[in-house]
What we know:
heterodimer, A: 7 helices, B: mainly alpha, 10 helices, binds magnesium ion
Amino acid sequence: MLKVEKLVFEYRTPGRRVSALEGVGFTIPDGEAWAAIGPSGCGKSTLLYLMAGLLEPTSGRILFHGNRPGERAREIALILQSYGLFPWKTVRQNVMLGLQLRGIHGREGLARARRILAELDIADLEDAYPEELSGGQKQRVAIARSLVTEPSLLLMDEPFSALDALTRERMQNLLLDLWRQRRMTVLLVTHNIEEAVFLGRRVLVFSERPGRILEIVDNPGMGDPAYRASNQFYEKAVYIRQKLFSFTGVGAR
Amino acid sequence: MTAKAMAVTAITLAVALAAWELLSLLLHAPTLPGPWAVFGEMAAGDQEGLLLHLLASTRRVLASLAISLVTAVPLGLYLGRNPGVDAWGAPFLYLTYPIPKIVLLPIVLTLLGLSDASRIFLVTLTVFYQILVTTRDAVRALPAAAIYSVQSLGARERQIYRHVLFPFALPKIFTALRISVGTAIAVLFFAESFATNSGLGYLIMDAWGRADYELMFAAVAALSLLGLALYLVIQLLERSLCKWQR
Ligand SMILES: Nc1ncnc2c1ncn2[C@@H]1O[C@H](COP(=O)(O)OP(=O)(O)OP(=O)(O)O)[C@@H](O)[C@H]1O
Ligand SMILES: [Mg+2]
């Protein structure tokens, strides 16, 4: 279980305080995939950094399986907004880094990296450098790198926002597949309403900065690849769109 | 090197040599021997002497570069990573950086003696600053996301240095190194022209004093070749260590 309680976070820079999150709370049962959606700058990335243990809450707390994220960082994987790949490492080296940092070297590490690269259909790219890849390929590498350590919590920050519509849909299907096979807990942050409805069993709708949760939208149809084409899906998207715009007062984008 | 780059290099070299020969013919003065005379001197004259001096200079400049790298790179990475410490170090750095290190020669000779150590120290000081400032500034420009990325994979502080800070700064370190080679050779020349009897700097000044212009130019050519060779070695190292850069 992933439990977030009364979470408050302020960025403190000399002479300035930016309140990014204000009293955020929710609980994700093990094995569920949730999505979070909200206006730009509302603190979504900040929430993920806190959950990954990269920032400490100003107040409130996060518990994953009863531990603070810093203590169990090894179970948690984070895919950053801009992929977070290292340009000086090849695809293989990028994917193996997480293993290497956990002390898994040599043959076992290589075998695990190759297995996940093959699963994501990028085995032929293992010697390429990130600069040589397309956006969709980079995203696959980032996913491979986070899954190779077999995390029980996967955090993703707008993973598909830089992709074209077709690649994006393909990657959403891929992610759904990977989740259905593995059943890890997922929290996916996105700007895209359809993406949130397709990939979130529940959708956290955030207010403008400082981020508060406006509503946790139940989305029982999620999990079926065919959901995308249903009326139910469409209605859910309309509902969330209304929530977002009525609360934030922002016009259609 | 590509075929094109090699051709350009060859043509440049030929043009430079031709210009030199031409100038020497025009002036027709013993103070400017042409390339043939100089290379003749290198081939026929006291080869062993020239080689010994070249070795002495090479040893000094290599030692200086090595010492600068192993001290300035870690320190630069550390200062770049720790702005709190850097806030203390920066004023000192900015005050001492503009001092032309070469003017410290008399002091260094007094303190360290007339040995190799004082010449190596002077060249090291020059290169050290260049690399230190470059490395520090490189690390400070690293996007925070890169640190988050490696930390989220479970990296500890030491591993952040190894997997992110160092490789990120490496191409910039090579650039600084390439720029400092020229300065290093210049400082070495000066440091070798006082109170010693080894090194190309000494040989140049000595030959000049004895009006042996062929030898003087041979030594100048040897010093230039040393610079060129270092430049090429750095280039090759960069190619093989920074493969992701094209
Ligand atoms: N290092 C920082 N120092 C000060 N303020 C910051 C810092 N990082 C983010 N902020 C501020 O905190 C707020 C939340 O930022 P965050 O990146 O979490 O937003 P976001 O919801 O992910 O936005 P986007 O959708 O554009 O990615 C923003 O208003 C931002 O300006
Ligand atoms: Mg963000």
